[in-house]
Fold this protein.
Amino acid sequence: MVGLSQQSPFIRAFYDYLQHIPAKKAQKSMLDRIDPNDCPTPEKIQESIQQTEIKHGQKTSVKMMKRILGPVVAVLKDYYGVLDTLCQADPTPGIMLWGALKVVIDGLGRFIDLFDKIKGEVLSMTTQLRRLTLYEDLYGSSADMQEHLFNSYKNVFRFWCRVDKECDRCSFNALLRASTSFSIKKLQGIVADMQNDVDQLDKLVPIIEGQYAGQERLEARIERGISQIEREEGSAWRKQLQSDRIRSWLGGQMINESNLRRQQNHVTFNVSRHTCERLLKATRFQEWFNGSASSPVLWLFAGPGSGKSVLCSQVFEYIKIHQEKAAVAVHFYEFDSQRSALSTAQILATQLYEKYWLHNHDIPEDLVDASQKSDASLINLFEFIRLLVTKLPIVYLFIDGLDEECQENRWIEAVKLIEFLNQLAITFPSNLRVWYSSQDRFLVRQKLKNFPAVDIKEHVRAAVDEYISSTVQGINNDEVDGDTQTWILEELKTRADGNFLWASLMLKTIENEVSSFDELEQFIKEGLPRDLDGYYTRIFAQYETTRERDLAW
């Protein structure tokens, strides 16, 4: 038998009805008299009628059976035709339903009047059952409808068990003497119950319709949501492909990785922390940073080894932290790496584009059009950068080491970029800030003469002095007399002369070669080089000594 959870309401109603028949009644029930090996069917009913006609010939009772029971069987056939699909999963309920009629036929027509009387009830129940099956077809997925159908179908089995009971109670002789003694009131009551069930279903239908409509709206909303997600995912995928094509067109990723690694190395180099702190508090810088300066371009210069590149990197990082919406791009010119204006523009454009993509994940048509030009020429890249500047909230560009480009061929390329950035900053002063940092060279000064220039020498000197004072180990030892402390610090500061590189090298040498503070004064006087040239000479001498020793081995 099919699992209970998978059974139809009709099958469930049948077994539920059997389960609740009292034990005494169950022994006398119709099912107890039905042979499971000889299941009643409409065809067998017709066969029983024919056999009865042949056997009893012209008896009055048989003529009555043919006249009355024949039409009733036709009614029953129409009635049970409605139940054909209901009994497909389990034929047992059908056996019971046809069993009542088979018992009558086997009783030689004793209950013909009964069937003549209940023909109207059977027709009425057929109509109700058609309505039930129609509701099941339309709303069978509703749990409420399933429950109502379950209760209604039980009345079908109540009806035929009542018929069987009346047949068992009334003998043939009693029917001949007083056929009116056969009461169909209880059968009519069952049919009325069934009618009431169907009426309740009529009232339930609008509620289920509303549930279905709500479910359909929900499903439609879910489907629209899924479609929207699929469209968005498809759109996101297409945009990602488009973005990848733009990156390929820009061609600056590999160059940029090296450029940004250098910037990160500078950030972790804490030597110029004090310089950065001093500069960030300076009025000239704050005005440039917040856009209140008269010029969006700022040039900072100082001597070699003063930490300009490190300072540039740290200010770059400061703006990234304090201006979350800002797009920040940086390029470091290097003496041993020549860059054309084209490759430098690629570096800047790639950084700005990545920032734009990170915040928008969308690409406007004009950027797409600009990137679809035949090649990433300098003019096309300049136009791409210009478009990005107009679309980003605020842009900071850092160009460090212009003095490295002060050679004829290299300067020509650098000037192309400088002139473009200067003009772009003048055109969009509220969108763009440009920072240059370099040594003070004639070519650089001439090209930037119309913009504010800041000599950071004194900022650097003060920062270097502070760095030395806070780094020399044991300098604040109470056992060291004040004159010695003063001499050591002043000597180191004088030799450094505001040069971060030389200051860091001196302190590193002292850390590696001086084991105690007592030896420091003597080492400074006799062992520590007085300048960078002397330091490099000392390094090369150590290298040659090591090399000769290795060769000797």
